[in-house]
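Q: what sequence does this backbone want?
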C-alpha cells in the first residue's frame, strides 16, 4: 500500500499528522498519530440529507425485537448509574427514540434529542445527570463541537454512557465490517476514547459489554 498524508487536522485532538491506513473504491481512512482516531476525510462524507434518508430506511422501532434487545443493554447500563431523581438525555436518538421509550417504561426520566430530527436543545439551558450516545460518535462530523455541546447540557458530576464498536488491530481494519457503513466516519480504539474522556475531564471506564463505555 502506498502511504500518504491527509492535510486535515484530527477532528478529535487537533493533531496535524494523519496517515493513510486503508483505502477502498469509495473512501480513504487516516489514523491520527497522536490519539489514534481513524477518520474519513470530509470529501467522502454523506450530506446531512443523504444521511437522514439512510436512517429513515432503518427499522428502528419497538416492533423490531432485535433492535429492542440491542438497546436493552444500554437501558440496563443507564439503570445501574441513575436514581429516581436522575434526568437522562438520549443524544442521537433517531426518529423513533426507542431507547428513550425503553427508559421511560422503566420509570427513568429520559428525553430524546437528535440533531437530524429534533432541535429542542439548541436554545435550551437544560442539564442532565446522564447523557447517552448509542452508536452516535462514529457519525459525528464535529466531534469536539458536539462534545462541547454535550458538556454544556451535562450536570455537575454527570455521566456519559456511549456505545460504539472499537478497533483493536489496525492491520485488520481494511476488512472490518464497521468501516463499510458510508455514514461511519470516525473509528475509535481505547486510546482515542480516553482522549474523548479527557476533553470532558472524565475518566473512561469499561462495562461488561465490549462496546459500551462509561465516562465519569
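A:
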Amino acid at each position: 500500500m502506498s502511504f500518504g498524508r491527509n492535510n486535515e487536522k484530527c477532528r478529535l485532538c487537533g493533531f496535524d499528522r494523519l496517515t493513510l491506513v486503508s483505502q477502498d473504491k469509495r473512501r480513504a481512512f487516516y489514523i491520527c498519530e497522536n490519539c489514534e482516531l481513524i477518520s474519513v476525510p470530509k470529501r467522502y462524507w454523506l450530506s446531512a440529507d443523504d444521511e437522514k434518508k439512510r436512517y429513515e430506511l432503518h427499522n428502528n422501532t419497538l416492533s423490531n425485537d432485535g433492535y429492542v434487545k440491542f438497546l436493552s443493554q444500554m437501558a440496563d447500563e443507564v439503570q445501574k448509574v441513575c436514581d429516581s431523581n436522575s434526568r437522562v438525555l438520549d443524544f442521537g436518538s433517531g426518529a423513533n427514540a426507542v431507547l428513550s421509550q425503553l427508559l421511560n417504561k422503566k420509570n427513568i426520566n429520559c428525553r430524546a434529542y437528535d440533531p437530524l430530527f429534533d432541535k429542542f436543545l439548541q436554545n435550551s439551558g437544560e442539564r442532565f445527570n446522564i447523557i447517552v450516545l448509542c452508536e452516535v460518535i462514529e457519525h459525528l462530523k464535529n466531534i469536539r463541537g458536539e462534545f462541547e455541546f454535550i458538556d454544556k447540557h451535562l450536570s455537575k458530576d454527570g455521566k456519559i454512557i456511549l456505545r460504539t464498536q472499537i478497533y483493536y488491530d489496525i492491520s485488520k481494519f481494511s476488512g472490518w465490517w464497521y468501516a463499510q457503513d458510508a455514514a461511519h466516519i470516525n473509528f475509535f480504539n481505547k486510546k482515542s476514547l480516553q482522549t474523548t474522556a479527557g476533553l470532558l475531564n472524565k475518566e473512561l471506564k469499561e462495562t461488561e459489554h465490549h462496546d459500551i463505555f462509561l465516562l465519569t
